[in-house]
Design a protein that fits this description.
This protein is an alpha+beta fold. The protein is built from five helices and four strands, in the order H-H-H-E-E-H-E-E-H.
Length: 196
């Protein structure tokens, strides 16, 4: 038998093993990089497709909204009719309130002011005596356009001509009563104009 003699130094054998290990490591690294880029390409491509689909959907919505806007802009009559209908639905017929307020003023009574909100109206009136004020409140309570009517305040009031104060001799004889009357409105009756 022939003996197997190895004449190569041990250091060269180790270098060959290290060289093959380095080659294997580089090959694995290249494969890993290729797999990473392939997965990344797939994910980015899928995201691009999703964004493109959403963009197409938004473009369709924009086109639809633009068509509606163009239609509304081309029909001002319809918009005007809708505005008028809305205004008529929520308007308060103030002239009816003023007519009712003037209707029951007797003697030297005088309507000095009117202030109203959506649900109530405040009258400022001048009377020669408190009996006229109470009769006025009683008459307003008989009107269907008011849900409640109450005399908020009544106070003595003397009108003085500032330019001729020296000529005023009988200040107490010319005294009047200023009455503030608050009434809540019945909107249905106000629009129909009925009486109780």
């Amino acid at each position: 038998m022939i003996p197997d003699i190895n004449l190569l130094p041990k250091s060269k054998k180790v270098v060959q093993k290290k060289g093959s290990f380095a080659k294997l490591f580089i090959i694995l690294l290249i494969v890993a990089i290729l797999i990473f880029y392939a997965i990344n390409y797939y994910l980015v491509h899928r995201d691009i497709q999703d964004v493109k689909g959403k963009t197409d959907q938004l473009s369709a919505q924009i086109a639809e909204q633009q068509a509606e806007l163009d239609q509304l802009n081309n029909t001002p009559e319809a918009t005007l009719a809708q505005s008028i209908e809305f205004a008529e639905k929520y308007q308060t017929p103030v002239s009816t309130i003023i007519d009712v307020a003037k209707k029951y003023i007797t003697g030297s009574g005088e309507l000095a002011g009117l202030d109203y909100t959506d649900k109530s109206v405040t009258f400022t009136l001048y009377f020669d005596n408190l009996n006229e004020a109470s009769t006025y409140v009683r008459n307003l309570k008989n009107e269907a356009i008011f849900e409640t009517v109450e005399l908020q305040s009544a106070s003595a009031f003397t009108e003085v001509d500032v330019d001729n104060v020296e000529d005023e001799t009988d200040l107490e004889g010319s005294a009047q009563y200023k009455a503030i009357i608050v009434a809540t409105l019945d909107e249905k009756e106000l629009k129909s104009g009925g009486e109780k």
